[in-house]
Amino acid sequence: MPQHGPQLGPQHGHPPAEPRLALASVDRSFGPVQVLHSVSLDLRPGEVHALIGENGAGKSTTMKILTGYLRPTSGEVLLDGRPARFPDSQAAEAQGVVLIHQEFNLAEELTVEENVFLGRELRRGLVLDTRAMRDRTAALLDRLQARIDPSARVRDLSTPDKQMVEIAKALGREARVLVMDEPTAVLTHRESAALFDQIDRLRAEGVALLFTSHKLDEVRRISNRVTVMRDGRVVLTRPTADMTEDRMAEAMVGRDLSALYPRRATPLGTDVALRVRNLSVPGHAEGISFDLRRGEVLGIAGLIGSGRTEAMEGLAGLRRHAGTVEIDGRPVAIRTPRDAQTLGLAYLTEDRKGRGLLLDKDLRENLTLPSLRDFARPFVDRRREEAALDAAIRDFDIRAPSRAARAGHLSGGNQQKLLLAKTMLTQPRIVIIDEPTRGIDIGTKQQIYDLIHRLAAAGTSVVVVSSELPEVIGLSDRVLVMRQGRLAGEVEGATKTEDAIVRLAMGLGTERNATVAQESPA
Amino acid sequence: MTTTARPGAARARPAINLHVLGPIVALLVLVIAGALMNPNFLSYANVTNVLARSAFIGIIAVGMTFVITAGGLDLSVGSMAAFIAGLMILVMNALVPSLGAGATTILAGMGVALLCGLLAGWINGILVTRMRIEAFIVTLGTMGIYRSLVTWVADGGTLSLDFALRDAYGPVYYGGLLGVSWPILVFLLVAILGEIAMRKTAFGRYCAAIGSNDRVARYSSVDVNRVRLLTYVGLGLLVGIATIMYVPRLGSASAATGVLWELEAIAAVIIGGTMLRGGFGRVWGTVVGVLILSLIGNLLNLTDWVSPYLNGAIQGVIIVLAVILQREQRPEG
């Protein structure tokens, strides 16, 4: 599925343009910890530069220094070849250097045009010149070919539209350098494609662009040059055409990644751990039936919005639902998350920042929250909690700035490991993991795949819900595909291909798959 | 950027910072200033007086700490106290002919107070949790309801406790054990139990988790509604206890009883370092906050440097300062 087509910018074949914005041997320390070591990087007009690396490699810090959010401890930021002084991000924006955050900086209650002109409203005498602002906003959105009403409230926009508004806002500030932090993390495939069209357009207009992504096929598709960072250092900067995805991944991790998905070592048993019949979650999912065997890894695929998450949340007692559920052959009623926990069923949310972890609490409080009752008799045993944290840090390889660090200060991958550790501490026999590796670097992905594999080998039954097809295929023994709130079919063995899954998810069942779809499980 | 947190290495140490020490330093400064300004300040009579007066707000503020820590708020406690006091007096007066002006009647009155407090807290809690109404709105509503009810029950005037009962009930406020009056002892007990509940029990941890992010708590199989409800019920019960200690002091209740107690209790909680938006609370801080607030009033009464009428202004400044100190603790996105 990676497209290796030539996607080079307009200046391809010409001598490279002078760098517009550059870092020259930049070091940066936070207290005693040095996070950037002599980083040099240059962004050229009319060029898309991809910055890749594992979580914690120093990408965010680099972007923040480029755009005035942080200052280098030593080294220089050069704008048009001259040392630039960005006392803060506003100063950088005033000089045309804009960072678009992964979490957007938009005032949700204001309209699109109000956001685009926020802080530099056009006036006519004492009053705001609403018409001029509306026209200018419409012109900016036109330039991006985005069909967004300038007077719509930002709250009512979809995520990709919000992103377009952010870009329009940056263009309205006459951005000459646009830095984007994982712009596609929140987008679907089709939305990403639309974004790339805009990026192509901006590149043709001579804007210098830098973006980060964990999706290497996108990096191949859209960037002219790629810089790989590891442990706060630049490992390499190359024309993208000279790199393959495998080489990028290896440069990021610094080791061979040939066996990303572990193989099942032992044959699967026949005991059914979980039997679900006619599960429905009003408004989201209907008629879901499946069996999950002991030690099995069952994948659930489907487009975003197909009801995967809602169905699983219903199963875990987080949403109202109907239908029959049996665990180890006994009918059970799971009305609350606590019921689920008592029965040994755990659900690991896809939304680790909003629903998974208390970002302002430390590792220990996060780790023991679901199983706190086991630590309280009647008073919470701090020593046992610390021992549990020791074990979790060891078993799940959680890397934190310090033991007392807040969960919010961990990298995405380590947050995910903490979330896994926290869930496994309740000793579930059935685990539903929703998007196990979203927004996580490849090295941590591999660790998480190994963990899931080890869990299954130890007899835990695992459900993996994922939007990444290679992941759901590589990890699972069987894959259920959901479409519009219903099971569209099941693929296994030789039929477990991306093509088959996509067809089922889109409602294009081939003859073969249609037969599979009609088979009712057991 | 990341270093491995090795098992056993660098255990979480309570960091010594201004945020923790602030309230204590403020309290010490007040005590020292008071001692320098007026020699009577540290006298047994004055200290007991200040503590006994703090006890009502203090008992309520301990309960309020849990409500706020769990991300809630209760504006109704002042009028709840007035209403419970009025009801208690009515019931006890009505029981005198049949049960006499003795312990039985008083115990019955106490029972009514506890029951009322529980019920009132439960109503607030149910409206907030089951009906999903903003705590501010719910308790603004019940605040008006209780205040109006006590005015109505007292027919716009004052409800007075039967004189014979006053003599029998008086010792609950004026008496004590080993020279320490009952309100102080009860406050102390409530504070100690509260501190233990906050720091050492799963309930306290759940309150902080819910206040920090209630969705995360729910997804971690914490029974969010039950814990929230319990914080309001607990606060109601404590309002009942505070009222039991308060009624014998004046022997009456009116529309003016307990006015602004809710704000004093909330202010004490915030000064003590609990976050108004929830997620972090400490009971000992609340106790310090209560003492700071009542010491300011006491100091202004004992010295003639500043008019006692400025009491509210000075308390206001302290509250704002406390919140400014809190700001530094805000975690980054």
Automatic annotation (TrEMBL), chain A:
It comes from the Bacteria. Keywords: ATP-binding, Nucleotide-binding, Repeat, Sugar transport, Transport. SUPFAM superfamilies: P-loop containing nucleoside triphosphate hydrolases. One of its GO terms (molecular function) is ATP binding. The keyword Repeat applies. It holds the Pfam family ABC_tran. Residues 21-256, 268-509 form the ABC transporter domain. The keyword Transport applies. PANTHER family: CARBOHYDRATE TRANSPORT ATP-BINDING PROTEIN MG119-RELATED, GALACTOFURANOSE TRANSPORTER ATP-BINDING PROTEIN YTFR. This is Sugar ABC transporter ATP-binding protein. It comes from Rubellimicrobium aerolatum.
TrEMBL record, chain B:
Keywords: Cell inner membrane, Cell membrane, Membrane, Transmembrane, Transmembrane helix, Transport. The chain crosses the membrane at residues 20-38, 50-68, 75-96, 102-123, 135-154, 174-196, 229-247, 259-276, 283-300, 306-325. It is found in: Cell membrane. It comes from the Bacteria. It holds the Pfam family BPD_transp_2. It is a multi-pass membrane protein. The keyword Methyltransferase does not apply. CDD domains: TM_PBP1_transp_AraH_like (cd06579). This is ABC transporter permease. It comes from Rubellimicrobium aerolatum.
